[in-house]
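protein under study:
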Amino acid sequence: MGESLDLHLQELRRGTVVLACLQLLRTPGYGYGLLQDLEGHGFATDANTLYPLLRRLEKQEFLTSEWNTDESRPRKFYRTSPEGERLAGTLTAEWSALTSAIRSLTTDPPRDEES
């Protein structure tokens, strides 16, 4: 079940990382710092997954970005756009509904098929 389980877990987590990024980037952040923040909140993410995701969300106008050149190494800072805030609100509401639905499946007694 190991490899199959890994694939299912990957699918389950994929959308949650989008929502986590939109929520965390309400405060501007850069890629490596975001990787650390995600991991600190239980969303272990690979850089090879995160950076294309950030570019895609920016292209879709859910994130904005600007370069910070104040330090010796320039960094691209991302921030959730107003459209990204709306998406995050919608995804959060949907996540809550899904969580409640799953919880009801695991806490309700099984239905008797013969009834």
Summary: The longest helix spans residues 82-107. The chain has four helices and three strands.
